[in-house]
Amino acid sequence: MVKQLIKVAEDPMVGRYVAANVDLAAWQVALVERPLIRGPSQVTGPVCLGCLKSITAESAVMCERCGWPMCSDSKCADDEWHKAECDWTVLRRKQKVEIKDFTNPHPSYQSITVIRCLYQKHNNPEVWAKLTKLESHCASRRGGSKYEADRVWIADYLLRFFKLDPAEWPVEEILRVCGIVQVNGHEVPLTDPPYVAIYDTGSMLEHSCVPNCSKTFTRDGHLLIRTAAAAIDSGGHLSISYTDVLWGTAQRLAHLADTKFFVCKCPRCSDPTELGTYFSGVKCTTEDCMGYALPNVHPSTNDPFDV
Questions:
Q1: Nearest Cα residue to 203 out of 41, 44, 23, 37
Q2: Rg (Cα) of the chain, in Å, rounded?
Q3: CA of 296: how far to CAs of 63, 301, 304, in Å?
Q4: b/e string for 43-52 if b means 16 or more Cβ within 10 A?
Q5: Helix (H) or strand (E) holding 38
Q6: How many angstroms separate the most distant Cα atoms in the chain?
Q7: Could you tell me which of 213, 244, 207, 210 has the C-alpha nearest to residue 228?
Q8: What is the pLDDT of the chain when averaged over all its residues?
Q9: Would you call 6 helix, strand, or coil by DSSP?
Q10: Could you tell me the sign of the dihedral formed by the alpha carbons of 72, 73, 77, 81, in that order?
């Protein structure tokens, strides 16, 4: 029996995480994973709901069953991912969708990826169980402007537009799914515009601003995790970066707090010099001074910007 390269473990401090199950060499592929869910980004103009590529009023072909605009490839109307919103439109709304504005971000597309998650509840319980185990950070999101916007533009919209029964589809459950998509969604740059995908094991990879793995995507949208330049011993945690490693500490901390709801305390964020790179430093202008002025950021506190 071939031993699995990685395993999912649990820790009281970090929760579920991915660890090496064997010694992993540098640049080794550790994981290739199909998405649980894929769908358009929350803010997007009309896209084909099969291939997720941008479409125009001239190029769009309406799905014969539901009316959602698709591209000219006839296979897209039968795409497995399109089935969720197509079925809900036919069976619940019972009226075809009419999209008329193809030039601006369209509010109807904000809910598509959430619909595709909710659809699994009755149609694929195994996927639904995996989705609902993922972190939503609802407690941290609740009361914030994004949470309230999701209530209006996604939860209320879905209940009204698709004539859903609130007893079957509680607002809080819809908002929890919104959080799962926001916290665990990966931007996949394989189309224009990029789309969002949620992966099961891939969602449990830890964050580090000095990650020991990199992520990329195969042509068919599978997540590919590869170790970086250093080997990882058996039992070692695998990490990727949830933010842009080319940003300074203040920018990274702000982005992670706003989108992932935690304060990063990795070695790079905890070191004012960013591991001797002085990445956020400003060269002192005093003559003959070789020093750097560094930002006063404290990731060890609850508010890293409390200076």
A1: 37
A2: 22
A3: 55, 12, 9
A4: ebbbbbbbbb
A5: strand 37-40
A6: 76
A7: 213
A8: 94
A9: strand
A10: negative
State the number of CA atoms in the 13 A half-sphere of 93 facing the CB: 21
Over the stretch 87-124, which tens digit does the pLDDT of each residue have? 999 999 999 999 999 988 999 999 999 999 999 999 99
Please state, in angstroms and rounded to a whole number, the distance separating the CA atoms of residues 30 and 26: 10
Does position 307 have pLDDT exceeding 50, yes or no? no
Give the pair of three-digit tokens for residue 159. Answer: 């209940």
Residue 274: predicted pLDDT:
94
Strand extents, DSSP E, 101-199: 186-188, 195-198
Amino acid making up residue 100: K
- Concatenate the DSSP letters of all residues of 143-162 into one string: TSHHHHHHIIIIIIHHHHHT
* Percent share of the chain, pLDDT over 90: 88
Cα→Cα distances 29→9, 16, 212, 214, Å: 19, 21, 12, 10
Q: Do 115 and 83 form a contact (C-beta atoms < 8 A)?
A: no
Q: Which domains can be identified in the chain, with CATH numbers?
A: 6-34+201-240 (2.170.270.10), 42-185 (no CATH), 249-293 (no CATH)
In sequence order, the 6+-apart residues with CB closer than 8 A to the CB of 129 are none
pTM of the model: 0.91
pLDDT digits (tens, 9 = 90+) for 188-222: 999 999 999 999 999 999 999 999 999 999 999 99
Please return the burial class of 258, using the count of CB atoms within 10 Å of its CB with bins 0-12, 13-18 and 19+: exposed
Burial group, residue 20, by CB count within 10 angstroms (0-12, 13-18, 19+): buried
List, in order, residues 6 or more apart from 25 with CB less than 8 Å away: 227, 231
What is the C-alpha separation between 105 and 115, in angstroms, rounded? Answer: 18
Among 135-139, 165-169, 298-302, the minimum mean pLDDT is found in 298-302
Q: Does residue 1 carry a pLDDT above 70?
A: no
**E strand or H helix that includes residue 90:** none
Q: Which of 189, 213, 223, 176 is nearest to 25 (CA)?
A: 213
